[in-house]
């Protein structure tokens, strides 16, 4: 019995960063979806879309998310968009919607905003935050960052605290050698 390979279930549209405008991007995605019904579309990332109309970042951010939300609704496809946070977010473990960069219009169009923050000292753990949930409740969970691509497991508060203690102990041991 034939089992499809993972790559049989993917379609990639690879475009030059900053050289594809929003209309072209949405058109290419729609054409691809006509021949291949995707469950998910990932746009990585929103600032690589060329602002051909020279709109302000505020207005362009709103335009990007309005068009991509329309694409999701018209094709019944989940659309994920990677976006940058403001530099201040790097100090936070729980990153809220106020840290999304460039445009509050982005936040207005989002149905779901997921952010990931790291512990201030121990970067192997942090918090995944559902910073905006249109028809639900915002909440966060402890997570562990692994070296395995695509894996960010949710962990208990106890495991989170245990990892922090172990990592701090390791740092103290190493620092003793440099005294």
Question: What labels describe this entry?
Answer:
about 180 residues, alpha/beta, two-stranded parallel ribbon, 4 helices, 7 strands, about 35% helix, globular
In angstroms, what separates the terminal alpha carbons? Answer: 63 Å
Count every beta strand, where a strand is a DSSP E run of 2 or more residues.
7
Strand content: 15-25%
Helical fraction:
25-40%
Order of helices and strands: EHEEHEHEEEH
What's the pLDDT, averaged over the residues? Answer: 88
Discrete helix count:
4
In terms of per-residue confidence, which ranges show pLDDT below 50 for 5 or more consecutive residues? Answer: none
Coarse shape? globular
Largest sheet: 3 strands, antiparallel
Structural class, by secondary structure, is: alpha/beta
Q: What integer value in Å does the Rg equal?
A: 20 Å
Strand arrangement, largest sheet? 5-6-7
How would you describe what is shown here?
The chain is globular. Helices cover 33% and strands 20% of the residues. The chain is an alpha/beta fold. 16% of the residues are buried. Strand 6 and strand 7 form a beta hairpin. The mean pLDDT is 88. It has helices at 22-35, 57-75, 104-109, 157-176; strands spanning 20-21, 40-44, 49-50, 78-82, 112-118, 125-133, 139-144. Helix 1 runs parallel beside helix 2 (57-75). The chain has a three-stranded antiparallel sheet with strand order 5-6-7. It has a two-stranded parallel sheet with strand order 1-3. Strands 2-4 form a two-stranded parallel ribbon. The chain starts with 19 loop residues before the first strand and ends with a helix.
């Amino acid at each position: 019995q034939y089992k499809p390979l993972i790559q049989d279930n993917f379609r990639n549209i690879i475009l030059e960063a900053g050289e594809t405008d929003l209309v072209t991007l949405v058109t290419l995605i729609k054409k691809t979806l006509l021949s291949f019904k995707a469950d998910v579309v990932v746009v990585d990332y929103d600032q690589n879309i060329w602002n051909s109309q020279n709109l302000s970042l505020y207005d362009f951010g709103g335009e990007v998310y309005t068009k991509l939300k329309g694409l999701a609704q018209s094709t019944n496809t989940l659309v994920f968009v990677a976006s940058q946070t403001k530099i201040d977010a790097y100090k936070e473990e729980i990153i809220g919607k106020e840290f999304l960069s460039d445009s509050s219009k982005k936040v207005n169009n989002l149905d779901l905003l997921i952010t990931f923050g790291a512990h201030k000292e121990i970067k192997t753990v942090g918090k995944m935050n559902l910073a905006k949930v249109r028809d639900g409740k915002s909440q966060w969970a402890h997570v562990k960052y692994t070296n395995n691509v695509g894996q960010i497991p949710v962990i208990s508060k106890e495991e989170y605290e245990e990892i922090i203690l172990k990592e701090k102990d390791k740092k103290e041991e190493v620092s003793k050698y440099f005294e």
